[in-house]
Amino acid sequence: MKITIIYDNTVFRDGLKSDWGFSALIEFNNRKILFDTGGNGAILLENMRKLNINPKSIDTIFISHNHFDHVGGLSEFLNKNNDVKLYAPSTFRGVKNVRELEYIVAAKEISENIYTTGELDRIEQSLIIKTEKGLIIIVGCAHPEIEQILNVAKRYGEPYALIGGFHGFNKLQILTELCFLTPTHCSENTEKIKSLYPEKYISGGAGKVIEFE
Length: 213
Ligand SMILES: [Zn+2]
Ligand SMILES: [Zn+2]
Description:
six-stranded mixed sheet, 17% helix
């Protein structure tokens, strides 16, 4: 299981562009899932090129929620490759140029060991990957609140890692139950999380690669 952050508010690897938004590539079980698409298609595709990620190699797109900084790059990506299955929250309408589209409302397994929390609070879904270590949970902005996201994820196993935007999140004690934390994108309390959980904290940023066995 490998996660490559393609688009982020900050840069981890020199040469990539930072911009407000989030996108990551998740490689797992021979699937290549693009999680969100950042705010700007040109920056998304340029960072992908610099990371040697071929848009045509991607088979699945998972959209967390309909905010510009997560969906802004989608149409330009689909111009490069629309031979994908797209999982969109039910409140995100209007995508046409795609091979297969599934609107998500409730939590479910979308592929072997790959789950969605469902569209929580009618705004956002999170992606859950079940590994030997536990659940790797990828969030866009975590608008439905991390506590609720973790509670839904627990139907499928023990949460291990939480990666993505921790928007407006300040119940930092909840994070004790996790083993791996990458608050990035819109996360506000990154420094506090780092000082509270130094052994669990891994920084994000465009170009960051995270691998789990
Ligand atoms: Zn966001
Ligand atoms: Zn958002």
